[in-house]
Amino acid sequence: MMDVRSDRDLLLTAFADGELDEAERAEVEALLAADAEGALRVADDRALSSLLRASLEEAADVVDFTGFADAVLARLPAARPPLGARLRALFGTVFGQRPFQFALGAAAAAAIAVVASPYLRSHERPRMLLAGDPSLTQVLDLDALGDHETMLFKTSGGATIIFVQESP
Amino acid sequence: MEIDDLALVLRAKEGDQRAFKVLVERYQRKVYAVAHGMVKDREEALDIAQEAFVKVHRNLDRFKGDSAFYTWLYRITRNLAIDRIRARRNESVGFDEAVGSEELPEPGFLSTRLDANPQRTALRRELAAKLEEALAQLPVKHREILLLREVEGMSYEDLAATLEIPKGTVMSRLYHARNKMQKLLEGYLGEGEDRLALASGEEEG
After folding, report:
1. Of A9, A63, A80, the CB nearest to B32
2. Domain encompassing residue A150
3. Could you tell me if the ipTM is greater than 0.90?
4. Number of domains in chain A
5. Taking CB atoms and an 8 Å limit, are A65 and B110 in contact across chains?
6. Which end of chain A is more exposed for a tag (fewer CB within 10 A), N or C?
């Protein structure tokens, strides 16, 4: 069990470390005003802290840490990120590329052309939704100018489609 | 703006080694200082520091962010250092052994002499050299708490989390650790002052 003296000493330690709340700090300060020995103990604790800190800092100062982090990384196993992270990395790269976005737009336009051309050519309801064979749709031209991209398609049914989109 | 530890840990968990490298560079010096304070050997301390980071990396998935990253890192460092001490010297790392007596040092022996001594820079320098010796004589539980407090400036709360002890124990352990250190230095200080009194031409820097 802790005696009164120990309680007071522990309080002084915490005071020296700045670990007391405002009320406790005020209480200790009042106590120290009338307790020269206590004040000296606090000063000793702080002097020891300062000496120790300086000494430990110096010990680390003499070490050159150049290459330390690389040496640590060299000891790590080859990293295989989780599947989610790998997929994000892969698609983040692919989707972020301009040619890919352009091709994606072209493919979408081709699909629209194939589906819509029967309606454009005839007032009759087409027997088939597709105007010819989708695999025979030709991309005649792809071009990018300023902030727009233009795509020119020809369906197997003979329709020519011009598709313009704003650059992503 | 500096990225906080938790954000770097999350990125490192996803395999971003650059993020982990930032963490290593952020803490390498202090981790080394703690390890060096524990084992007193430069090469061994560097090895412990490296091993601590490797171990941290290996266990990143277990880190949930409930406590600060550095408390976890220092806990691993301290455990590795204790293992080395045990293996190397069969040194006792018991938690109850006493160094010297529990007698209190003379109040003000350190602060007043440092302040009053006109050659206190020289005295500090000599004392700094003696500090390592004194630290090495402390039981591990006292050595580690002083190191974590002084190297990292850890709060009592962080010390409690790192060492997995109650806050009240932190306070009493620090108190006893400092008393022992001061007692060990007290003997030296008398001799040191006598030697310094004989020295000449050494002035305050």
Report:
1. A63
2. 134-166
3. no
4. 2
5. no
6. N
